[in-house]
Amino acid sequence: MNLIIDVGNTLSKVAVFQQDELIERFTVEKPDLSKKIEKIFSRHPDLDGVIISKVSQAEFSLPQNLQKKMPIINLDAGTRLPFENLYATPQTLGADRKALVAAAVKEYPGKSVLVIDAGTCITYDFKNEKDQYLGGAISPGLKMRFKALNSFTANLPLVEAREEAELIGDSTLTSIRSGVVKGILKEIDGVIEEYKEKYPELVTIITGGDAQFLSINLKNSIFANSNFLLEGLNHILEFNISR
Ligand SMILES: Nc1ncnc2c1ncn2[C@@H]1O[C@H](COP(=O)(O)OP(=O)(O)O)[C@@H](O)[C@H]1O
Ligand SMILES: CC(C)(COP(=O)(O)O)[C@@H](O)C(=O)NCCC(=O)O
């Protein structure tokens, strides 16, 4: 059994896998992460390995002397990856993005895949039919866009997302929702369409905290999988310990 820890910029996700099968999964706020890990270790004393992807400053602790008992992979620039990484600055590539590409390679070998992660940021990651990772894009996430409008202006309130966003906002609130929600949907559909012109057989996956919310209103057909990143981390761990 493997313990998978994904520390994002907003939330942490912790999961236990038995080989390829996800046994349990928790979403935790940053201050609760150490306690949750401790609980999982007491429930699963038979864990075989741990992998950690961390893209935020959040601190947490693992049980003492764990390194002596099992492999612990801190996913960084030195970790071996199950794909060819053609990113021009591999040292600065987010660990979470590597995990998403690993999942794409595992689930869709030999296919062109675009992975969209709608979390704190929206990331786009593309791997081609040769299972080479080329890169993608980073743009502000849903909450970040609402927060930015509020933070960088004098008159705009902080607005919550709603699934139904009108094209023509007839108030400050609905104008902000139109701009943010419709803006993200148009961005995602536009990016997918541009990739599809170049890679007609493209498979598109959406994941992350806002994936469900966004995927319902996208024009393009797209697979939503809320565990994609965790599956990718599990694959990187297996890839590193089984050799
Ligand atoms: N309980 C929650 N707390 C905070 N954000 C949440 C929650 N549930 C859903 N979200 C949404 O999920 C997004 C974070 O998604 P996630 O994939 O966990 O991001 P990250 O990996 O960057 O931490 C937030 O921007 C927010 O819109
Ligand atoms: C782009 C990110 C901030 C996304 O983080 P997230 O929204 O998933 O919390 C993260 O992948 C990161 O810090 N990347 C480093 C820059 C890069 O990937 O090129």
UniProtKB/TrEMBL annotation:
CDD domains: ASKHA_NBD_PanK-III. It comes from the Bacteria. Its EC number is 2.7.1.33. The active site is at D96. GO terms for molecular function: ATP binding; metal ion binding; pantothenate kinase activity. Its main location: cytoplasm. Keywords: ATP-binding, Coenzyme A biosynthesis, Cytoplasm, Kinase, Metal-binding, Nucleotide-binding, Potassium, Transferase. Pathway: Cofactor biosynthesis; coenzyme A biosynthesis; CoA from (R)-pantothenate: step 1/5. It catalyses: (R)-pantothenate + ATP = (R)-4'-phosphopantothenate + ADP + H(+). GO terms for biological process: coenzyme A biosynthetic process. It holds the Pfam family Pan_kinase. A monovalent cation. Ammonium or potassium. The keyword Ribonucleoprotein does not apply. Homodimer. Belongs to the type III pantothenate kinase family. Catalyzes the phosphorylation of pantothenate (Pan), the first step in CoA biosynthesis. This is Type III pantothenate kinase. It comes from Salinimicrobium catena.
